[in-house]
Amino acid sequence: MTDFSGLIEGYRRFKANGWKQQRERWTQLASGQNPRLMVIACSDSRVDPTIIFDTSPGEIFMVRNIANMVPPFETTAGRHGVSAALEFAVTQLEVPEIVVLGHQSCGGCAAALTRRFENAEKGQGGFIADWMSMLDEARDKVVAEHGHGEEAVRALEWEAVKVSIANLRTFPCVPIREQKGKLKIHGAYFAVADGILHLLDEETGEFSPA
Q1: Buried/exposed code over 183-193 (b: 16+ C-beta within 10 A; e: otherwise)
Q2: Binding residues
Q3: CA 20 to 30 Å from 165, out of 10, 18, 149, 190?
Q4: Which residues fall in the annotated binding site for Zn(2+)?
Q5: Cα–Cα distance measured from residue 163 to residue 91, given in angstroms and rounded to the nearest whole number
């Protein structure tokens, strides 16, 4: 497994090979970025959007967090990292598309399903519990329909994508641009075990292979 020294070795390979191969690209990027996509993905080490979508530097404006969640629009005091990134992508970079990417075997969704950190102190799981409380309503629905088994985990992983999309639309800048045809939102789900990407049909609420 790669440790910090492994990262430095990787950097040296990149500088000697990859950077040189795309030197013109890096020169262009030094003056600014113009991504056409924002991807909101999980922090999970197995789910790297740049690898899954085979993209080059500068093509994706990305946010990664536990369970690829977007919080609802709030004006309370606090450090709203996802909200700030979304605001920057939509109002400053004016990205025309946003993808919410969920994935198989999501630890955050599993924690939401089991409520593993429900009474934990901050720094001992409490932050995770607070963050995953965004799925409380979806979790109760999933448990009522599927119980607590593997099928329930998959169902909640799908619901996490839908909840994040719904929360995206609570930000005033999002529906305004959608209505004008300037912004499209997509839901996707990556199955780690077989490498298949599933896309959400918002009309049916179903995911199907791309």
Answers
A1: bebbbbbbbee
A2: 42, 44, 103, 106
A3: 149
A4: 42, 44, 103, 106
A5: 22
How many residues appear in the chain? 210
pTM for the model stands at 0.95
CATH number among 3.40.50.300, 3.40.1050.10, 3.30.70.590, 3.40.1690.10, domain 35-209: 3.40.1050.10
DSSP H helical ranges for 14-135: 19-21, 23-29, 49-52, 81-87, 107-114, 126-132
Q: Roughly what angle, to the nearest 10 degrees, separates helices 136-146 and 107-114?
A: 80
> What is the spatial distance between Cα 111 and Cα 131, in angstroms, rounded to a whole number?
11
Please report, for the chain, the start and end positions of each structural domain, with discontinuous segments joined by +: 1-32, 35-209
Cα–Cα distance for residue pair 24/205, rounded to 1 Å: 42
pLDDT digits (tens, 9 = 90+) for 122-177: 999 999 999 999 999 999 999 999 999 999 999 999 999 999 999 999 999 999 99
Question: Per-residue pLDDT tens for 162-188?
Answer: 999 999 999 999 999 999 999 999 999
